[in-house]
Amino acid sequence: MSINHDLLHLGRPEGPVRPVNTPIEMASTYLFDSLADYEAARAARFEPGTLNYGRYGTQSTFALEAMMAKLEGGHGCVAVSSGLTAITMAIMPFVSSGCHILIANSVYGPTRGFCSDVLSRMAVTAEYFDPMIGADIASLLRPETSAIVLETPGSGTFEVPDLRAIAAVARKAGVVTIVDNTWATPTYLRPLELGLDISVHSGTKYLSGHSDVMIGLITANEACFDRIRRSTLAFGERASPTEIFLTLRGLRTLGVRMERHAASGIKVANWLANQKRVRSVLHPALPDCPGHDIWKRDFDGAAGVFSFIMDPVTKPALADFIDKLELFGIGLSWGGFESLILPVDVSAVRTAPRWSQDGQIIRLSIGLDDPDALITDLAAGFDRLDAFA
Ligand SMILES: Cc1ncc(COP(=O)(O)O)c(C=O)c1O
Asked: Domains in the chain, please, with CATH?
């Protein structure tokens, strides 16, 4: 069956007469017919699907989690309150005092804050590495290395790491691998099939798709799932009923939305590559992007978020370029139906290696707008830059 079939049919109510969509289930307390039933549910409370107390999951939580587990080819999934929570809750069960974790230089920025503000106080050492390291990651492993954290492609800079090579080294050494798969979504990449142990998502982006939800999802293989579920529950983490409902609903249209984001993104990226002010376009489907060959080997498509590097401009000229765009909003996040633009500065953040390219990085999230209209909007922006005094 195709992934589109799964997107339409998984996680939906069953029964002779049923609503099309899994309803919002608001529940803290579940009532049982007998003390014996209550005690059986308590005993099985860590098993997905057991209704026991709202924090452990409702019918709609379990519907979304089972759906994501299937889409990602995992043993199980845990829904949490944001994408950042998904990252931190995926790391937590695999660290303890004195251990060492390896983090790709290109991960979502706030992951670094979690390492410096929280993990460091637990005496966990976080070491950053070049995401293009491939199998040479072996040289960074220490006896106390417990986890490797990756993102594909990299946040803002879109280089594509060789997940297969890194996972193979890690598996041999007994080190857990975690990858942020938010960009590709399961429609375009299923990291567990490449040998990764855990795939995390900010469902805030494409999965829900309408810029009105915050949710995170952690999908893991059998070896890691139970530890993640228990640890996440120990923190009291959960996703809200409304966000779960909206994510399930968003998933129904993920396939067609991704097709449109992909086609429009590549069209705008190719146009940008020919503009005189543009030095390079950081889009995994374009041959110049670091890791393009790996993208071709492992992915089934490209999302609509990418960056380009343009000649340096003054702050007022940059503001004039961006502020007067008609179709691109200025705002955080991405993966919604609307198009977004933001300047990106990784020079202060990236440590291993330091970011060495000059020029202004601009990140675009290509929404469901007509791509020709987006190109016209950007072209007018470049004309403004030419005219800017
Ligand atoms: C790649 C990636 N992962 C995780 C996150 C964090 O997700 P959330 O905002 O849902 O916490 C973001 C947010 O921008 C992101 O871009």
From this structure: 3-252 (3.40.640.10), 254-387 (3.90.1150.10)
pLDDT in tens, 227-269: 999 999 999 999 999 999 999 999 999 999 999 999 999 999 9
The tokens of 114 are what?
């979690």
Answer whether 0.70 is exceeded by the pTM: yes
> In angstroms, what is the span from residue 113 Cα to ligand 1's centroid?
13
Binned at pLDDT 50, 70 and 90, residue 108 comes out as very high
* C-alpha–C-alpha distance, residues 112 and 87, integer Å: 11
Angle ∠(156,280,307) on CA atoms, nearest 5: 25
Whole-number Å distance between alpha carbons of 281 and 272: 7
How would you list the strands of the sheet with 305-310, edge to edge? 278-282, 305-310, 360-365, 339-344, 328-330
> How many whole angstroms from 389 Cα to the centroid of ligand 1?
37
Active site residues: 55, 108, 180, 205
CA nearest ligand 1 atom 2, residue: 108
pLDDT digits (tens, 9 = 90+) for 293-343: 999 999 999 999 999 999 999 999 999 999 999 999 999 999 999 999 999
Phi–psi pair at 301, nearest 5 degrees: 175, 180
